[in-house]
Amino acid sequence: DLQSSMSNSPPGSPNLSVLSFMGGFHGRLFGCLSTTRSKAIHKVDVPAFDWPAAPFPRLRYPLSQYETENRMEEDRCLQEVERLIATWYVPVAAGIVEPVQSEGGDNHASNYFFWLLREITKRL
Questions:
Q1: Which is more confidently placed, 82 or 51?
Q2: 26, 96 contact by CB (below 8 A)
Q3: How many CB atoms sit inside 10 A of residue 40's CB?
Q4: Gap between the terminal Cα atoms of the chain
Q5: Of 66, 73, 117, whose CA–CA distance to 94 is shortest?
Q6: Is 0.85 topped by the overall pTM?
Q7: Strand partners, 106
Q8: Could you read off the pLDDT of 10-61 as tens digits, one per residue?
Q9: What are phi and psi of 118, to 5 degrees?
Q10: Rounded-to-integer distance, Cα 39 and Cα 21, Å
Q11: Strands 53-54 and 92-95: what pairing?
Q12: Backbone angles phi, psi at 86, to 5 degrees
């Protein structure tokens, strides 16, 4: 495991992926281990991520005026999430969604979107 982790290969670095959303900002450190080559113990069992990226809904405001359009946008994004999880060539082990960010800004979606996102990830 230690030796294979140094080349981002299994079993030390499992072939798994993490679904993220376009436009998301998740910090400066999380993906850095994919390029680390100094000490195997720092990388063992940490996958070198190949992340599929799904669109995050771009809602229109005021919400009450654009309910139909916003629901269609959220449904479109959820369908793409489902497609990516089901078909990505590396199994998706997790998803990261961070709607309120510092540098990335606020990415709003409805309770409907987040509830169905959770249902999709539980099912798949």
A1: 82
A2: yes
A3: 15
A4: 28
A5: 117
A6: no
A7: 100
A8: 888 888 888 888 776 665 555 655 455 556 776 677 766 667 889 999 999 9
A9: -65, -40
A10: 31
A11: unpaired
A12: -75, -25
Number of H helices, E strands in the chain: 4, 3
| Residue recorded with tokens 């599929």 | 52
Which pair of structure tokens corresponds to residue 31? 């993906």
* DSSP character at residue 56: P
The more confidently predicted of residues 10 and 73 is: 73
Q: Where are the alpha helices (DSSP H) in 1-124?
A: 2-5, 40-43, 67-87, 111-123
Helices 111-123 and 67-87 cross at an angle (nearest 10°) of 20
Higher pLDDT, 101 or 109: 109
Look up residue 64 and give its two tokens: 């009450």
Question: What is the C-alpha separation between 20 and 52, in angstroms, rounded?
Answer: 6
